[in-house]
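Quick question about two entries, pasted in order.
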Amino acid sequence: MIAVIDYGIGNLGSAYKALKALRVDAELVDHPRSVSEISGLILPGVGSFGACISALRFTGLDRMVYQAQQSSIPVLGICVGMQMLYQRSEESPGASGLGLLNGEVRRLRNAKKLPHMSWDTITTIKSSSLLKGFTGGEWFYFVHSFAPEVTDQTVASCDFGSVFTAVAGDGLVFGTQFHPEKSSSNGLMLLSNFVALCSEVSS
């Protein structure tokens, strides 16, 4: 079962609906539960970094994310959910992220227009099970004004005036700055790759 973390902010059901479209066993989880019951965890996010991380901690669901990582259960953060996996964000000074990925989330530099609200292509930097079957240049849907800087954990990047991390990965912790659940066939393929990895790890 894939747990989709529901901490009460934004449209957190989109990823759940996409998984159901793939006929995947998924549940919206709005309170902490044992990670022994799940094979993967998805952390969506819409809104500001500070509000989302505060809500996540208020519900206690941050502990479930940590437990999944510590139990070698794949984790996928989406958009602000990905940003929360990092240590901090320029959007909310003083608010600490989960720290499962290294680096800082920064405001997009040199962008002609913000937010970055459009389809855009990614450039693959290194191989990852999350991007199995992709060769680079695929289109995904972005909606954001902040994004993680490029680090050694960057799997794929995007250029919108400046280059930022579009896909990150470290061990079994992954993040996408774009919305795979809104990215048509490419997004469903990426989610299918995540589900396949969850099945492989749990078997």
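Here is the second entry:
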Amino acid sequence: MNNPWYKSILTGAAVVALSSAAVSAQTTLRIQTHSGQSSPYGVAIQQFVDNVATMSGGDLTIEAFYGSSVVPSAETFDAAKNGILDCDMTNGSYQTGKNAAFQFVADTMGGYDTPLQFQAWVQAGGGSDAINELYASHNLTFIGAHVGGQESLNSTRPIAGVADLEGFKFRSPPGMESDIFAALGASPIVMDFTEVITALESGIIDGADASTLGTNLNIGVYDVAKHTTFPGFHSMSSDHLACRTNVWEGLTDQQRRIIEVAHTQVAMDVMIATLVLNGEALAQMPDKGVTTYNWSNEDRAAFRAAAQGVWAEWATKTPEAGAMVASHEAFLKRIGLAE
């Protein structure tokens, strides 16, 4: 038919149909992180949100909730699993009560020297597959990990090596870390993070496992504790991105690839930010009267050996924990960090 008016109607109808299809294809994922929006992790996640929207042309958007504003941090995993949220961007250690294997998703305690080594285990050492075997039973799919770097142990007395851990009273989170340090003669005391400064000032503790050098400086640890390890050796906690499996599988191949690529950038961004902030903090240590200790290879190896002894105990807790420990041990040998 050559009627221009009719053609105009057909063209308009086609535009409306295409617009409706575009609207129906638009997807929003609700994701919670325990990080504050202005923290290095929070800033990287904000960029992640922007990258996903830009790369998808607006067809895929992220509604991010910072600082555990929807549910408490430890409940984020279940909130994603049960449909309150779509994805969890917190930390696997919160789920250790479900299965000891979650400890080795979050922090091996003494296993790796750098965040890049841990990322290599996830992306090239079988870590992603091992984690997904664990998460699958909880209706979640593991997308990736992001970790800033080693934390610095702080003390009101010298802490130059393993020998200085004898009788060392320090704030420790519950779980495997306490077991490792106790095996080396320390006296870990479990307390809330918010109590660290007061406990240091009053002498209840000699030191604390708090955070990275940069964060410790910002929260005032070095106003009291004048000894610290750097680079750190003991803890490097990794956060994750995990989405409810039916939500993840309901995305298009393009949308899944966009999220994977954008999250890989998050991992790079938090490593870079932590490196820079730690470097800037290190430059301020002399003016703060703080002595830094870079543990020798021998002391690091002694700590790693003690850690692996405790790993062996934790590996017996569940079959999944045993599989996770075996995966880490094989990769540590592969990259020359263990024999």
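Reply: The longest strand covers residues 27-33. The two ends are 80 Å apart (CA to CA). Hope that helps.
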